[in-house]
Automatic annotation (TrEMBL):
The lineage of its organism: Eukaryota, Viridiplantae, Streptophyta, Embryophyta, Tracheophyta. Residues 1-23 form the signal peptide. This is Protein trichome birefringence-like 39. Residues 99-361 form the Trichome birefringence-like C-terminal domain. InterPro entries: TBL, TBL_C, TBL_N. Belongs to the PC-esterase family. TBL subfamily. It comes from the Eukaryota. Coiled coil: none annotated. The keyword Chloroplast does not apply. It comes from Senna tora. The keyword Ligase does not apply.
Amino acid sequence: MGLLLQSLFLLILLTLFSRQTKAEHLDVWGNATTTHFPSRKLAGGRCNWFRGKWVYDASYPLYNPSSCPFIDAQFNCQKYGRPDTEYQKYRWQPFSCPLPKFNALNFLQRYRGKKIMFVGDSLSLNQFNSLACMIHSWVPNSPTSFVQKDALSSITFEEYGLKLFLYRTAYLVDLDREKVGRVLKLDSIKSGDAWRGMDVLVFNTWHWWTHTGSAQPWDYIEERNKLYKDMNRFVAFYKGLTTWARWVNLNVNPSQTKVFFLGISPVHYQGRDWNQPASSCMKEREPFFGLKYPGGTPMAWVVVNKVLSRVKKPVYFLDVTTLSQYRKDAHPEGYSGVMATDCSHWCLPGLPDTWNVLLHAALFG
């Protein structure tokens, strides 16, 4: 009963917080207020890069997928027969200010000898692949090396000493195999030792928190040495992210490391989210062009904002949720070589390139 009451209390709290934050999205100037987010910094500063529209740009994409050696098979939609390319040709245009263009030479020079790590699930892999391709397209003859061992992968642009890392972890908190089975530990981050020493950390998590049945990779949830067969997933997500926030507070030196959190990446399995109940992402060929996405703000976004409001160290929020919700056209669909219907990951070139344009702007803007 105690856990049930705790869950109900947290959900009520998050609902109230959601109402509070909705006004931020409706700001007429597109500027996010920071009254309720003392530590969370919107990556665009006072210029809100995250409210805008998608515009067709014939100069896109930012790279040729056939020329990039770093695209994971599941994101290489052209290789697996997607017949259209229009999804590659949309550029994000903020309402209130221009978004700085991506310049890989500038990136390589200013981050010479630096280390950038993406930490999270397959959406982090999506973004990691994207940034590697964006840089590679500017210096195609510059030597690179790729190393993968267990959860850690790296790509090095050897001429510049720039290293991109990917640390795969679906939950950020630990998932351990013990005598009772697979245990998701909401208050433990032993794997955080691998994240130290980076100049930039870009975190992401959410999708695996929703998995149930045979797709669920854990048997028990543990908190404070107590095992639970299950828990409200938003409550579990909140607790896990709170542990991550504690790790940031204890382990990050802001003078040495910039921390980013990628907003919730949406899925497009249910067409009712964009007022087409009979549809999914399959055969969608253009973005949603309305000003307000019918599906509304995901509760997971509310949880992320609540946690980020309590982080004592600076965390830059890449608030890509709304701009990504508009891109119902940009998923692999059935052209991933892995999943029959994939409305959760993103084709490359594609949407994650915009995430990295925003990351680049935040680092150098």
